[in-house]
Amino acid sequence: DAKTTQPNSMESNEEEPVHLPCNHSTISGTDYIHWYRQLPSQGPEYVIHGLTSNVNNRMASLAIAEDRKSSTLILHRATLRDAAVYYCILSVIQGAQKLVFGQGTRLTINP
Amino acid sequence: DSGVTQTPKHLITATGQRVTLRCSPRSGDLSVYWYQQSLDQGLQFLIQYYNGEERAKGNILERFSAQQFPDLHSELNLSSLELGDSALYFCASSAKTGSRHEQFFGPGTRLTVL
User: What is the pLDDT of residues A85-97, one digit of tens each?
Assistant: First the structure.
């Protein structure tokens, strides 16, 4: 399984943007980049995913480097509810899809 | 609310026992996944079913088995339970299978083996 590297923890302030980095230097051309987050005492929650182009949705933006070896999840205005563990996952194009979760980044939001 | 339901929410049992965890996917989703989250191993993929058939297997022990029924709900059976099986078990579902489909996770079942 292709690996991702994320910082163990990050801290930010409420109402400020947050940039969560992820390195995936062994990514292959057909691997999708997925981001999930897990709030305390809850199941993981889908955030966003992309293949090559930058992606936006109501929760966040995903910026993918041109060589696809890294990506950044952007939360435009963090709220206290965004405090969670964020997982960057590579998902291989095959018939099955299993998400291989790493340790993720624990994001703390300061009021 | 993801639309995925799991029962029971909590389960306490003894070593050597057998339990069944149940999952109802989101309406219309054909694919069901099971994950285990423990403090020392993190979130680990166990098994995937798609429209009733097993599609992928992860680090699932031989003491564990799963199935997906014609109405698409799924059950995870854990037998000969050991203390180390204590964990959160999550079910997820997706519309189809394949890496571009997001998965929607249920609230989990917390299993405690005493």
Answer: 999 988 765 555 6
Question: B14: burial class by Cβ within 10 Å (0-12, 13-18, 19+)?
Answer: exposed
DSSP assignments along A9-35, one per residue: EEEEETTS-EEEEEE-TT--TTPEEEE
Chain A contacts of B56, Cβ < 8 Å?
96-98
A86 contacts in chain B (CB < 8 Å) = none
Give rounded-to-5 percent helix, strand, coil for chain B. 5, 55, 45
pLDDT tens figures, A11-35: 999 999 999 999 999 888 888 899 9
pLDDT-derived band at B59, boundaries 50, 70, 90: confident
**Cis, peptide link before residue A7, omega less than 30° from 0:** no
Hey, what amino acid is at A45?
E
